């Protein structure tokens, strides 16, 4: 008799992983979650909104996962997965409500899957949203044993009259950059080519550990700022770096003038440049030390930077907006 297990799919290991995952998901449940992991669908009620708009985003972790495989450390890339999604929907002023994850592998190891979801849970806790469901797919022969892929989907909510869409941005407005935690989750194909030895050290730390530093989640400080200040536009600095992402907050023909000496660059980016990557390509690929950018009224710039500092988030005045459709001008 041939069984499903003979084909490479271990149902019992799947049951074990679900059991381990449930505990991580339960920690994230916020008011409004109506059911737990195990139903056919997750349910969340919106609560008290006048004219709510749902805002969604989806993303993965990319080839940063290869660093996790090689380091055999799986409990942080789930944070990256959440960060990539919630930081994006945050750009429109949305408060993240819930998150769904998708994990695929060739051979399921319950403990590894649980570590991956622990990271997702930690990210959800940081973002203040609930992990209400997901899918773990075991696909023997499709993925190599020991390899996993992870992606996620976030849904948030914002009052329609409070959507941030960049429509009020004008010349003279100021740009504030909030510090990143490192490389975040983009450009790892180039990183892996430049830095093959994960056991090499930089400033006394293993390269593998530096490269696995999770993407920073900006939800809590930004939602706090929105209670007091007018934020005209926001940009999450992901793949495409400064050049692609900052102009995404603009509605009209505007130029972001950035002082590239106005903020600190993490040592990992300096190291990559020392290996031969030109500065312009770095700014066109990586966050270079700034993970999130705000466009604000000039009179609010200092107060917002001070507020962020008090909340534990280092921020800088990195530039201003000018007329013209040049996108980004680095000086």
Automatic annotation (TrEMBL):
EC number: 6.3.3.1
Superkingdom of source: Bacteria
InterPro entries named in the record: PurM-like_C_dom (IPR010918), PurM-like_C_sf (IPR036676), PurM-like_N (IPR016188), PurM-like_N_sf (IPR036921), PurM_cligase (IPR004733)
Entry keyword Ligase: yes
Pathway assignment: Purine metabolism; IMP biosynthesis via de novo pathway; 5-amino-1-(5-phospho-D-ribosyl)imidazole from N(2)-formyl-N(1)-(5-phospho-D-ribosyl)glycinamide: step 2/2
Primary localization class, coarse: cytoplasm
Enzyme class: ligase
Pfam families: AIRS, AIRS_C
Residue span(s) of domain PurM-like C-terminal: 170-326
Keyword Ligase: yes
Catalytic activity: 2-formamido-N(1)-(5-O-phospho-beta-D-ribosyl)acetamidine + ATP = 5-amino-1-(5-phospho-beta-D-ribosyl)imidazole + ADP + phosphate + H(+)
Family listed: Belongs to the AIR synthase family.
Protein name per its UniProtKB record: Phosphoribosylformylglycinamidine cyclo-ligase
Species this protein is from: Clostridium omnivorum
